[in-house]
């Protein structure tokens, strides 16, 4: 009996400490896509500058949108790590690029200086904005200023909320994934007119639905002026696009990189999408996240945009609004982890019997 309890305890601990980085096999050569990203460095702001990689479509015939994408923790420790350690470069593939209105999009992926024990934090917000501004100036003839979008996962989901709420007139839409952050009411109010697509797993034990996103989503639904344009995709057990289990239910970015479709363009497993009015949305290829982004524009036309005060009202480490209390989050997480564990064991035995 003691041995059985010990084994279950070890199994549960293993679930609780799943790695936060992984890489899924994909149908094409992702290394060739990574090679399409060039290296650059932004200007210095208050002693800080950020390096970034970017993808630029070749010979665009018209102005194209710009997508800013923030990496998660553990992927910024070296130059180009922000695309080497995840599969976002799939958005540079012909298939995804062709889904953007105009036939393509610029991709801008900045990096925090994790090699110096620095992570996405308040001081990076103006430095990133300066880098984006300089990038736009260099591509002024081909970047559509009314179609600047921002997203990111985990720590990058936090940075998405920080940056979008600091410059709400600059971005046309935001897509935070499993954000590890408690935005204040003032920050969410700053996003009231912005379409937001939140993606997270209810089984995520790192920055999941019960710990952060449930409260974010509920408060966003109360404050948004565009509920029909806001979306929540809630995952169960997170899968790669080929149906295999990811090593952590935190890894919803593998779904995002494939535009929320499987490799054969089918419905993504264990994912349910609703709008802020509670209506379920059935995603049918090729109309996923990219098509949703392309439905929105801002009024930004190149004027100077000052950073508002919402970030200062909820500094790094600040509590913001109190999200789900610890006990409220703890019991669903334990229950979900146990259910996931036994489901995986059952699948394992079932596969042995085949």
What order do the helices and strands come in, and which of them pair?
Blueprint: H1 2-16, H2 30-34, E1 38-41, E2 51-55, E3 64-70, H3 81-84, H4 94-97, E4 106-111, H5 124-138, E5 143-153, H6 155-166, E6 173-177, H7 185-190, E7 197-201, H8 209-223, E8 231-235, H9 253-257, E9 271-275, E10 280-281, H10 289-294, H11 326-352
Throw out a few tags for this protein:
about 350 residues, alpha/beta, Rossmann fold, 6-stranded mixed sheet, 11 helices, about 30% helix, globular, disordered N terminus
In short:
The protein has 354 residues and is of the alpha/beta class.
What do these coordinates show?
The chain is α/β, with parallel strands linked by helices. The chain folds into two domains: 29-323, Rossmann fold, CATH 3.40.50; 328-354. The chain has helices spanning 2-16, 30-34, 81-84, 94-97, 124-138, 155-166, 185-190, 209-223, 253-257, 289-294, 326-352; strands spanning 38-41, 51-55, 64-70, 106-111, 143-153, 173-177, 197-201, 231-235, 271-275, 280-281. The chain has a six-stranded mixed β-sheet with strand order 1-2-4-3-5-6. Helix 6 (155-166) links the parallel strand 5 (143-153) and strand 6.
